[in-house]
Protein: RBR-type E3 ubiquitin transferase
Organism: Trichocladium antarcticum
Amino acid sequence: CVGCVNTATPVSKTAKLKCRHRMCNACLRRVFKKSLTDPREMPPRCCTTDHIPLEHVERMFDPGFKREWNRKFFQYSTRNRIYCPSRHCGELIRPDDIRREGGRKHGKCSRCRSKVCGSCSGKWHKEPDCPRDDGNAQSLDRARREGRQRCHRCKSMVELEEGRDHITCRCGAEFCMVCDAKWKTCEC
């Protein structure tokens, strides 16, 4: 098994991947479970860019897991994700639910039907300029002082590792902690 390097695992308890490596059922379960919580691990891969097909774990997981995995696969593979800002929702706004009117993007949450601004990811506002949220600005200032910063792509908070200026968010975006520019586009 390429995952646990166990050579005693019977071939019948492994899957042969496109890259010709074998992975045991326990390692397959582990990488598929991990891919639900870590966008960098979605979809699961071995040594190439080809992902490990869900068919290899078809019999290992119940239908509920497979539904959740497919939902997360769609979510994590969506670029420039926007989530519903409603307090008790947080649903991903599907790209099909985002429209452009008069030069402004907006989306509609499929769960709670809230209208969302495509620029600031906040609740929809009629004004062309997005409103400043003072509470949010204070939280972001405090986070920056504590060594955290908001990702410019997915808007989640990212913590800087000690002694580094380069941040890689779980969504894959890379940027400079000093000036917030895309990585390798600044002089920092």
About this structure: The chain has three domains: 11-77, 79-131, 149-176.
